[in-house]
């Protein structure tokens, strides 16, 4: 085991021990412990959080270095380019892929094939022609709309370089 890893684990272990001791002090006086638990739970877990962060940074699993520099000119250009672009949240896009029974890693051809297969299966015109109950027709209509929306959003997202 590397020396840095060993030292990092030792620091984390020391944090666990110090946390147990700190909780013993806080809850040794029950009133203080309960007040801290209610009003300032961060103080109760301060030793563990501190030593965990320190240990992980020694091991190298957690770094806070960044090369980010704010560039006002780039920010303005980005806002102008994307002023009219629609952004969809991660959850929305996942929902669209689920509706089309696809994955984000699928190619657009695979997604298109899934879309066509599902449209063929659920299109409300084919349901109406089978003389099925009105509830089925309504379901098919809603399903078709959701399939169309999902396919359009995924196509647009991929066209704009967002997956």
What this model shows, in words?
- The chain is mainly α and 163 residues long.
- The chain has two domains: 3-59; 85-159, Helix Hairpins, CATH 1.10.287.
- The protein is 74% helix and 0% strand.
- The chain contains nine helices and no strands.
- The chain has helices spanning 3-28, 30-39, 41-44, 46-59, 72-81, 90-99, 108-122, 124-129, 134-159.
- Helix 6 (90-99) packs across helix 9.
- The longest helix is centred in the N-terminal third of the chain and has 26 residues, at 3-28.
- It is elongated, with a radius of gyration of 28 Å.
- The relative contact order is 0.08.
- The model has no long low-confidence stretch (mean pLDDT 76).
The helix/strand order is: HHHHHHHHH
Low-pLDDT stretches are none
Please summarize the sheet with the most strands.
Answer: none
Number of strands: 0
The percentage of residues in β strands lies in: under 5%
How much helical structure, as a percent, in the residues?
over 70%
CATH topology of the largest domain: Helix Hairpins
Q: How many structural units, i.e. domains? A: 2
What's the CATH first level of the largest domain?
A: Mainly Alpha
Overall body shape: elongated
Cα radius of gyration in angstroms? 28 Å
- The computed structural class is mainly alpha
Supply the CATH architecture of the largest domain: Orthogonal Bundle
Q: Report the end-to-end length measured between terminal Cα atoms.
A: 40 Å
């Amino acid at each position: 085991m590397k020396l840095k890893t060993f030292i990092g684990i030792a620091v984390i272990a020391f944090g666990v021990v110090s946390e147990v001791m700190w909780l013993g002090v806080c809850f040794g006086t029950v009133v203080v412990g309960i007040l801290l638990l209610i009003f300032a739970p961060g103080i109760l877990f301060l030793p563990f959080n501190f030593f965990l962060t320190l240990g992980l940074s020694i091991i190298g699993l957690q770094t806070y270095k960044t090369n980010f520099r704010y560039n006002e000119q780039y920010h303005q250009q980005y806002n102008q380019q994307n002023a009219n672009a629609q952004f969809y949240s991660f959850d929305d896009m996942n929902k669209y892929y689920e509706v089309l029974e696809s994955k984000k890693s699928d190619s657009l051809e695979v997604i298109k094939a899934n879309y066509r297969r599902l449209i063929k299966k659920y299109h409300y015109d084919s349901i109406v022609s089978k003389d099925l109950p009105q509830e089925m027709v309504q379901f098919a209509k809603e399903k078709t709309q959701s399939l169309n929306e999902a396919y359009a959003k995924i196509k647009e997202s991929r066209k704009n370089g967002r997956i």
